[in-house]
Amino acid sequence: MRQLKDIKLAIIGLGYVGLPLAVEFAKRRSVVGFDINQSRIDALKAGRDSTLEVDDKELESATYLSFSTDPCDLSECNAFIVTVPTPIDQYNKPDLTPLIKASECIGKVLKKGDLVIYESTVYPGATEEDCVPVLEMASGLKFNVDFYAGYSPERINPGDKEHRVTNIKKVTSGSTPEVADLVDALYNEIIIAGTHKASSIRVAEAAKVIENTQRDLNIALINELAIIFNKMEIDTEAVLQAAGTKWNFLPFRPGLVGGHCIGVDPYYLTHKAQAIGYHPEIILAGRRLNDGMGAYVVSQLVKGMLKRRIHVDGAKVLIMGLAFKENCPDLRNTRIVDIVRELAEYNIAVDVYDPWVNSEEAQEEYNIFPVQELLPNTYDGIILAVAHEEFRNMGAGKIRELGNENHVIYDLKYILNSNESDIRL
Question: What is the pLDDT of residues 310-349, one digit of tens each?
Fold first, then answer.
């Protein structure tokens, strides 16, 4: 097993999680930042981060950071941190393909005494049951004899400039007690908030996957309450503000649940639960409710248009926002696409506007072509879908100017005051 002072580090995957991690470590030690996306590497070498998680000055401060797409450049490294995506497929089943391919890549350069740490969100057991065998097969080495593993789940919150990698407490773990100590010591080099050393890799994996499962269920509850209160013609936000005056009421709000974590991680846990013979009732119920919110939003918009005697077939609707959350360019698993597709079922023409997102990425991922400018007196319906600061700054007056003489504004994110929109979630 390596000593802390001898570690030569590689970060595998330079997205929202991997790049900030690589930058922080590279302020103190040599780091190879590896990614299979050549255009991503070219941009980083030029000092630009398209995710906006790391600014130009931060990139420049990473003195000991090099970038590469060549696996041969990993051969001099002896510790590897894997931060690749762990998505779900069209059937909501975990897709471990990026994780397996990363493990194969590392396995080809793995040496005796090396350490592999995974940060990607997985179900309990995935590191040792799915990834380690790939490392053994590719390297010909034996786990916990020739090489070692750790797990330290990422806790990055895209677009959040207050909670960064260094000031979020880090859970760590290792495949032996000695390895756990080494992993913990490695992260303590950069984590100001400190670490929590879990008793095993499986405990650390389980801790991560329930963090977002808990949030998903809480949001599902509030979404269901919003549906109930809408039927009763009660303002949901007013109810939540009143309930929020109690010290232990949790401040969740209704809405679409997308992104790379909250809308995905519960399916990793339910997959594993079903594999061991247990059918999770509550978790899947929450997922079904949250996954159905796009259709519910469109049904409410259509009802609102009909009440205004706006002809639905052939109407034109503007969706303001495409990113999965506010003030962030991240399009991963954005549920705005559910609204777009549902509106198409009503033969409604849809424009999507989002100043944060990359238009080419939107086209490639979702076949959505965002408009580049907003035209006044154009729309029969306007959906405020993402609470970008730019939309808040517009105010109700400028947003109203985008609509036809008779139009409906649906405010999903409470961007406007209750008397300034026509429908609120």
Answer: 999 999 999 999 999 999 999 999 999 999 999 999 999 9
Residue 275: its pLDDT value, please?
95
- Indicate the angle between helix axes 236-243 and 201-231, nearest 10 degrees: 120
Backbone angles phi, psi at 331, to 5 degrees: -105, 0
Q: What is the dihedral of CA 129, 133, 134, 138, to 10 degrees?
A: 170
Tokens of 308: 């205004």
- Asked whether 375 and 404 are in contact (CB, 8 A), the reply is no
Task: Name the residues annotated as catalytic.
Answer: 261
DSSP secondary structure, 64-120, as one string: TEEEES-GGGGTT-SEEEE-----B-TTS-B--HHHHHHHHHHHTT--TT-EEEE-S
Q: Say if residue 17 is exposed, middle or buried (CB neighbours under 10 Å; 0-12, 13-18, 19+).
A: buried
Residue partners of 350: CB distance under 8 A and separation at least 6: 316, 317, 318, 319, 340, 343, 344
Can you say whether the dihedral through the CA atoms of 112, 117, 121, 125 is positive or negative?
A: positive
pTM over the 0.85 mark: yes
Work out whether strand 316-320 and strand 379-384 pair parallel, antiparallel, or are unpaired. Answer: parallel
Asked whether 267 and 287 are in contact (CB, 8 A), the reply is: yes
